[in-house]
Amino acid sequence: MIFVGYHARIGSQDAILEHTWSDERVANLWINGEATGEIGLNAGVCGHFGVPVILISGDQTACAEASALIEGIGTVVVKQASGRMAGRMPAACPGPRKDPGGSSQCSDAPEQRAGPQSL
Is 19 a catalytic residue? Predict the structure, then answer.
């Protein structure tokens, strides 16, 4: 399973629109005594059905939350949050650029960390 455009759980600092379902109705959610959000809940449902979660995209706080919950998950930070309503998106990549070592790269690409699984 791949989680695209996820947000961090309610109460997280430096997270864009952090919430768990509804920030007006749900104050927190616990699974096995651990405060969690939609990332943990959805990963638990996937695990129940034997479906591994291999990748998540979101702000840096959502990706850190997923990394703490799911060993080896790949993360793609697509925005840097500086508050609930503020963040910075990486500049669009104008195309690949060759570095002196000969590999193609985009200097403004989002941070990526591949997990042990391959797609």
Answer: yes
